[in-house]
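So, could you explain the following?
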Amino acid sequence: MIRCADDMHNLARYLIFFQYIGTRYRGATKVPSHQHDRKGVQDHLEDAIRRLRPNNPVSLSVSSRTDSGVHALSNSAHFDLQRMKDKPPFTEDVLVEALNYHLRTEQIRVTHAHRVPDNFHARHRAQSRTYIYRIALGFSKQSLLPLTDCELCWNLSNTELDVEAMREAAAMLIGTHDFSSFRAISTDTPFKSPVKTLDVVDIQPGSSFASAHFHREIPFWELKFQSRSFLYKQVRRMTGALVAVGQRRLSVPQLRDIMEARDSLIYPKCLAAPANGLFLARVDYREEDLLKCSWILLRMFMLILLSTMLMANPLFPNRPVRPILCR
């Protein structure tokens, strides 16, 4: 891509990381205009960007879709922003502060931002995504949980789970497999390969967000899943199946049969875990990609600075220099 410095000097692409409590939102991505009874997280982020009065149309590209009711400790997205009246691009810190000011009434927070080149894509450059599913034991109703955990975990009336059986079942999921049985049907199902590689499936004790300030101890378990990408509702379906194994409602061989069937219709009805216990914990990028971004931006800055110095040089009064920035 070739652009003149005059067109580029105040146009910036940013990669932002943000978190949200998903209870009140219709998922992470934009909601069609005819369904705006409840917006998606992307709608609110784009509204906040528009409040910065950019000179270009606002379009946010979210790296990871999450369903209605699912939360995020760290999701990511990129967007372009060109300020009006030749103002220089926002610094990362100023951008974060400004966006959070306009998001102050929402349960959405931008945690940090990076300037990136204009060919950087938040979804395509992501190397892995990590999800955490939180389970509280010994609670038959959400209303009995402390406020800090209500709608932020799956409450089970069971006081214990067969965790060793769950770990045996989880080991079957690690690696490259056809996960057709663990994906829900959606409009893009025919166009996406069901073959995914799970790098991590782990089950460890967790804790309540109010562990030091509640009148009783709450047994928590956390299920961790890491992969470059996941199928629609794959994590919730895998979690539901693993919990069923822990409750002895499903055996490890039965779970193996479900996976080997490679058929989403064979997955037992009402077995998928609810949305409220699921958190997108992180989206990872290669360190060299972000370092390369910084180097390219520094090079662009130096070229523009050199151009300005040459144009101001009295030895060249009639020879303005307009450098071409190539990538």
In short: Residues 131-281 form a domain with the Alpha-Beta Plaits fold (CATH 3.30.70.660). The helical segments are 5-8, 41-50, 92-102, 163-173, 234-246, 252-261, 287-311. The chain is about 25% helix and 25% strand.
